[in-house]
Please model this.
Amino acid sequence: MRKLLSMFLFSVCTMLACDTYNHPSIPYRKVDFTIYPNDVMYYKLNTYGGYEYFTGGVNGIVVYRLDEWTFHAYDRACPYDWEAHESWIKVHPNGIMLIDSVCGSVFNILDGNVISGPARWPLRKYNTRYDGQSLRVYG
Model:
């Protein structure tokens, strides 16, 4: 019985570990915070296409609001060479791309995939959960 329970717990832990995205370039940093997008403090997240920068992760986090219920959160560390320079991913002035002005890599704001530049890997994406009041960013 004890052996069966041990095997079950090992299996559950293994399955939960598989749920965490293992980025090939950016190291894992635990992220777990909650914000209230309807609060005036986060007024930029009150509109579709709005974004805010937060601390956490490797080089900070950018949260982008796609529509009423959909938010995307990415680490601001560029997967090209995040250790060699102080690269900070920023939202491009056109509002539909993310860019690292140091290496020139450009990423799609909807999925974090590379559009152009030397980066070969997408941005590290964090999970988001919105209940209409609070937004949890975690991963």
Q: What stands out?
A: The longest helix spans residues 2-18. The chain is about 10% helix and 30% strand. Helices lie at 2-18. Residues 56 and 88 are 13 Å apart (CA to CA).
